[in-house]
């Protein structure tokens, strides 16, 4: 039999039903708090400010993947530059070190954004990683490049969480799923742009690798320009006002046992999600081109076309299932996508079926994988209390991403010993199951209204009206 404990919410809450929705929604047990009739809300147009915040977030997320892939593409070029004096192994370490710094950036910029607002930290963040990225073009040696990439990792660590929080706080609640699905595929769009940029600099203009980093500053500066027009989040302003009235500090919120438990759960969920994404993407280009260990032995041109095709599939999946989650629920949509991904593994992972089936399998696989991912910006922000929404989604995502970075060396080792098909299949199956199970045991708060007592985090004891809230 479930035991009950009593928590105190200090402050002024208008109605008993608001209190009930608080206890269920903020602990993840409510599905929605509708703001408008569905037909009216679906037609509600975005304001100039809402559009700018969304465009800036997409550009920032696109920049994340754009830079990540660009660095991987130029590793061999840098290693062959005798004046630079770095080996491919040393340069590969930079990617791991950069990834390790992202949770640090999510923490620094997230806490700052929860204290002073979303807008200024985001602008500073974009300026910071833009400068660090551009300076890589003039790095004289490995040590300087490593330092710059570490700093860049801190900057990029703050981008996703703050950008997603600001957009989801501004977008109408009834349209979060749709715009979540449009935001997340920005990562795959960045991959497409990076491939084109590398071809332009390397194959068309025949410039050295340093120009790649100069080129990478362009989308960052566009994002900065758009963000300069974005207003502060009204949700954050209302949250800070409520915290002052209730004498609540961020420490009180962060040390709340339910907040801590949910934080641990979301890190596990994001580890599974990132592993699902990396497990179906990181080693796949090598599988397509390899002529040993069971690789598909395709030409570089054929492999590139398949890579572009499945990135388009990823964009399609995010748009379809992000929008679908608004009707069918966040968790149901995620589990549906992961479940449909399992039977696709044989045509996705085995070269013997031919080029056509590999193209189809990889396309459909990324529709499902990134379809599930299309729900995540809305899902994570809805599961985050107002007062720490700058910190909470970004840090949980980046910690999960860091833990999932183990995927690539594991897959490479399995491919060397048992073949690519084995490596793809036996890393994909467990993680798809993990995503389904973790999502099934979790909660959701689809359509919850931000900036109200419903999404306020538990307040510390203090002056004001105290309401006893029974929680499981």
Q: Which blocks of ≥5 consecutive residues have pLDDT under 50?
A: 1-41, 458-472
Q: Helical segment tally?
A: 22
Strand order of the largest sheet: 1-2
Structural class: mainly alpha
Instruction: Give the overall shape, derived from the CA principal axes.
Output: globular
Q: List SSEs in N-to-C order.
A: EHHHHHHHHHHHHHHHHHHHHHHE
N-C termini distance: 11 Å
Radius of gyration: 23 Å
Helix content: over 70%
Q: Averaged pLDDT, please? A: 82
Instruction: Please report the total strand number as a whole number.
Output: 2
Fraction of residues in β-strands: under 5%
Biggest beta sheet attributes: 2 strands, antiparallel
Fold and architecture overview:
The longest helix has 33 residues, at 48-80. Mean pLDDT is 82; it is low at 1-41 and 458-472. The protein has 22 helices and two strands. It is globular. The protein has helices spanning 16-25, 38-43, 48-80, 88-116, 119-135, 142-170, 176-183, 186-204, 210-215, 217-227, 234-246, 250-254, 257-279, 284-289, 300-328, 330-341, 345-349, 355-373, 376-382, 392-404, 407-418, 420-441; strands at residues 5-10, 466-471. It has a two-stranded antiparallel sheet. By secondary structure, it is mostly helical. It is 71% helix and 3% strand.
Question: Can you lay out the helices and strands and say which pair or pack?
Answer:
Blueprint: E1 5-10, H1 16-25, H2 38-43, H3 48-80, H4 88-116, H5 119-135, H6 142-170, H7 176-183, H8 186-204, H9 210-215, H10 217-227, H11 234-246, H12 250-254, H13 257-279, H14 284-289, H15 300-328, H16 330-341, H17 345-349, H18 355-373, H19 376-382, H20 392-404, H21 407-418, H22 420-441, E2 466-471
Antiparallel strand pairs: 1-2
Helix pairs in contact: 3-4, 3-6, 3-8, 3-10, 4-5, 4-6, 4-20, 5-6, 5-10, 6-19, 6-20, 7-15, 7-19, 8-15, 13-20, 13-22, 15-16, 15-18, 16-18, 16-22, 21-22
